[in-house]
Amino acid sequence: MKQNKQESLISLIQEAYSLIERHPEFEEQYNRIVSNSKSPEELVGKLESLINEYHNNNKKSKVYLSPVDLYNTDEISKLKEFRRNFLEEIIKFNPKLKQEPSQYELSNSETLLYELDSLDEFFESYFIVKEIKSNDKIKKDITGYLLCNQDQENQIELAEIYVSPEFRREGIAKSAVKEAINLYTKLGYNLIALVHKGNKNPQRLLIDLGFEKRSEVDSCLIEFVYDKNLRKI
Ligand SMILES: CC(C)(COP(=O)(O)OP(=O)(O)OC[C@H]1O[C@@H](n2cnc3c(N)ncnc32)[C@H](O)[C@@H]1OP(=O)(O)O)[C@@H](O)C(=O)NCCC(=O)NCCS
Question: Are 57 and 25 in contact, with CB atoms under 8 Å apart?
């Protein structure tokens, strides 16, 4: 096998492994292709079409916000599970949480994470749904959640956003925030988001979508503002 073919096989295998990491269901197809290919050239061809098919399907996917039904126990437990995962990730950016983790359990109402019972009073909570149509079938995945909080008369705070690790880097959070911007600016609101200083990924995302970095709220949070009069996306 020539060196450049070998290199393309290696990079395809690496790409396939990174897909498997994010989507374990991909592994079965990958193993089938590897064991059925009779030559490295055949393997390259089959891997290329599998990965292309995956990317094409992804491009066809639609991402939307679906309000969480807080009277539905299945939806509440899904949201709780997501929020627990969110807290586990966010804790590393928050020195206060690191120091006193026991105070911040989900069951404690005076926590950074608000009691679920009061969610419908203060927050609009949404699941972030990814929908893919293939061969006339529709596959819907609940990939994460977004909590929005009306913290002032004309302002909505994007309070929490979370996407499950297996769905990350596919533009899902970006589409969800875009939808929230469209929804709330049409209703006349500006948007804000408070992000931990060390949490760089959401900061990039907000800037890309037209938010402006305004101020540091305390030693660890930065405020981002989307002013409907200044920006259009
Ligand atoms: C932050 C988070 C919601 C992003 O979700 P996501 O669906 O992977 O984000 P997207 O794919 O829409 O990424 C949009 C942009 O954000 C930035 N970004 C997101 N993840 C990134 C990463 N791992 N490395 C570098 N940039 C990243 C990039 O600018 C990216 O645009 P690009 O892919 O065109 O470069 C997700 O990583 C998460 O749930 N993190 C844990 C919870 C959290 O930190 N929430 C935010 C604080 S409230």
Answer: no
Query: 50 and 71, same structural domain?
Result: no
Residue 41 shares a structural domain with residue 142 = no
**β-pair partners for 168:** none
How many structural domains is the chain composed of?
A: 2
For the question of whether the overall pTM of this predicted structure is more than 0.85, the answer is no
Which pLDDT tens digits describe the chain residue by residue (233 residues)? 666 778 888 888 888 888 888 777 788 989 999 999 999 889 999 999 988 888 877 777 899 999 998 888 899 889 988 988 888 888 888 766 655 555 444 443 334 444 555 555 567 899 999 998 766 788 899 999 999 988 788 999 999 999 999 899 889 999 999 999 999 999 999 999 999 999 999 999 999 999 999 888 777 889 999 997 775 54
d(CA 229, CA 142): 33
Q: What is the DSSP letter of 39?
A: S
232 assigned to some structural domain: no
Compute, in angstroms, the gap from residue 39 CA to the centroid of ligand 1: 38
DSSP structure string for 89-106: HHGGG-HHHHH-GGGG-T
Distance 7 CA to ligand 1 centre (A): 29
Taking the centre of ligand 1 as the mean of its atom positions, its distance from the CA of residue 148, in whole angstroms, is: 18
Q: Same structural domain for residues 215 and 114?
A: yes
Q: How far is the CA of 170 from the centre of ligand 1 (A)?
A: 9
Pocket of ligand 1 (CB under 6 A): 86, 89-90, 160-163, 168-174, 195, 199, 201-202, 204-205, 208
Can you tell me which atom of ligand 1 is nearest the CA of 160? 48
